[in-house]
Amino acid sequence: MTVLVASDLDRTLIYSTAALGLTMPDPVAPRLLCVEVHESKPLSFMTETAAALLAELTENPAAVFVPTTTRTRKQYQRIRFPGRPAPYAICANGGQLLVDGVPDRDWRRSVAGRLAQECAPLEEVHQHLLAVSDPAWLRKARIAEDLFAYLVVERALVPEEWLKSLTEWAEARGWGVSLQGRKIYAVPRPLTKSAAMAEVARRTGATTTLAAGDSLLDADLLLAADRGWRPGHGELADAGWTAPSVTALATAGVLAGEEIIRAFGGTVATLTA
């Protein structure tokens, strides 16, 4: 049996300093391992225990660990996970499938074809975002991998009604909107992590899929997997979202990442015993 383990990264497996959620007294805080450096500064962390558990998972021949992220390839490639390198990685919310670190051109062409047929063009959405955003809270506007757009904002200043209006506008054009930390993503509905996960499962012959994620962009991934986990923080937790096959953890912050990896390893061990 081959078990595919597809996990979101930011605020699911790895955590910035702002997202660590270290609410315990300092002397009992978990030891942390830096797994990402950006511009010579430490950016993302796991607990040392989580890192050891992930390394053990990647050494299990029955498991295929697949990092699954909305990050671009360049952003993903900054991360240095413990254990064996992942043979597959899903980037750009399913728009890029990396095989041994190299983008799969056939997959990218198939994605481009679906987007052209099923939703409004990226440029239309990008221009709308620029037109309706307020300079008082907009910090950056970016296009990722020529697939989707996102804004970096001062979150506390973004009106809820503005976000609701943008969501309605986008949905009418086949796009979705997700607020994650200081970023507002506008992503085409056909661009999904679940579709890329299914492709990796087909290529590897995986008979069971496990998944984890914290945001609305991860909901399709969790629903498509045989078993899923979500942490006690993030968009899905805030919305009280769950499903019969999804375990809603109470743990929040970096310790939730540790709990998720432990659940992955334990489930793989049970399935392949």
Brief write-up:
By secondary structure, the chain is α/β, with parallel strands linked by helices. Helix content is 34%, strand content 26%. The chain has a 5-stranded parallel beta sheet with strand order 4-1-12-13-14, sandwiched between helices.
Please give the largest β-sheet.
Answer: 5 strands, parallel
Helix-strand makeup class: alpha/beta
Helix percentage: 25-40%
**Roughly how many Å is the radius of gyration?**
18 Å
Low-pLDDT stretches are: none
What value does the average pLDDT take? 97
Q: Give the amount of beta strand, in percent.
A: 25-35%
Reading the helices and strands in chain order gives EEEHEHEEEHHEEHEEHEHEHEH
Separation of the first and last Cα atoms: 10 Å
C-alpha geometry: globular
Q: Biggest sheet, strands in spatial order?
A: 4-1-12-13-14
Our count of helices gives 9
Please provide the count of β strands. 14
